[in-house]
Amino acid sequence: MFIDEARILVKAGDGGNGCLAFRREKYVPRGGPSGGDGGRGGDVVLVATEHQNTLLQFRFNPEHQAERGRHGEGSNRTGADGRTLEVEVPVGTVVYDDETGERLYDFTKAGERFIAARGGRGGRGNARFATATHQAPTEHEPGRPGDTRRLRLELKLLADVGLVGFPNAGKSTLISRISAARPKIADYPFTTLEPNLGVAQLADFRSFVVADIPGLIEGAHLGHGLGIQFLRHIERTRLLAHLVDVSEGSGRDPVHDFETVLAELASFSNDLAKKPMIVVASKMDAAQNRARVDSLRNLAAERGLPYFEISGVTGQGIDELKYAMAERVLDRQ
Ligand SMILES: Nc1nc2c(ncn2[C@@H]2O[C@H](COP(=O)(O)OP(=O)(O)OP(=O)(O)O)[C@@H](O)[C@H]2O)c(=O)[nH]1
Ligand SMILES: [Mg+2]
User: Fold this and answer.
1) To 5 degrees, how large is the angle CA 259–CA 163–CA 2?
2) How many Å lie between the centroid of ligand 2 and the Cα of residue 319?
């Protein structure tokens, strides 16, 4: 299982100090104590969101501090409370205390909130200490410090985009071009034996997760090749990118390849076969026969599927494809 991890420091706001003051006003003899209370420090609250799917943002931004409470003032003015700081974490994040290892919270739904650090209470002003026999109190309290905590966040990455296609279609090459994943790439079928996940990043720091799985061949659902057991890794993706080798080297017909893989997907699950799909003509640099390429393009057009042409070798079309994937899986942002 591919796990994303981040360590963060959360600091809640300190409470404001209570005030020491006495009322001094014209025509009011012996004005009493009037020091207001300090405000409460802001909490740091983690909030689950579906707008993020990795913990990447915390690598650039590991410290989160909420506002302190304002100090109390004379004339019984209470200091304002510090604002709560909300920190968004992806749904699926598990929060641990980094010092004790204790598991503190497990986010399963968007909108769930966990108070990671509580703000300090404001100190009481001297007005609070007045009693019938103690009319000019000078006691007043400092605010309490807010909690400081080191947390470890852990997220099981779920893929947004699944790469499917025949063995040798260039799936691993593609994931290595759009993410930091470095799977084994070789000129023979079934190079990939285990699924690989990669985080594809966009220029604006948004990101999505791509899964590269072993290739499928005819009869995969009967156990041919490596079989279809790996398809469960892409069952929860929101988009499939179907790579078809359009170079002469494959020795097969692109349309036939496309339909074969689709049939294998359908025999695994109907949902999978119905997932949104992008058709990708792969190895364009080695495709001399335009008719082969066009047959795939026409097929995509007939089925109303988006179509891209790429080469993992020259880089042709890679960025366009990456942004097309992002557009379809990050539509919530
Ligand atoms: N000419 C050319 N060769 C490519 C391109 N993309 C991948 N290849 C080559 O094709 C072979 C297979 O690439 P992989 O990325 O391992 O293919 P795969 O789909 O992951 O294969 P399996 O893991 O076996 O299913 C390698 O020798 C790559 O160098 C491309 O765009 N152009
Ligand atoms: Mg591979």
Assistant:
1) 150
2) 20
299 phi, psi to nearest 5 deg: -60, -45
Residue nearest to atom 16 of ligand 1 (CA): 185
3-state secondary structure of 29: coil
Give, as one character, the DSSP assignment of residue 127: G
Q: What is the mean pLDDT of residues 267-290?
A: 93
- The binding-site residues of ligand 1, defined as CB within 6 angstroms of any ligand atom, are 165, 167-173, 185-187, 189-192, 214-215, 282-283, 285-286, 311-313
Dump pLDDT digits (tens) for 38-79.
999 999 999 999 888 788 888 788 999 999 999 999 999 999
Which residue would you say has higher pLDDT here, 212 or 29? Answer: 212
By most ligand atoms within 8 Å of CB, the mutation choice from 163, 185, 280, 293 for ligand 1 is: 185
- The model carries a pTM of 0.68
Give the dihedral of Cα atoms 163, 168, 174, 180; nearest 10 deg: 100
Q: Report the distance separating Cα 210 and Cα 21, nearest Å.
A: 63
pLDDT in tens, 164-192: 999 999 999 999 999 887 888 888 888 88
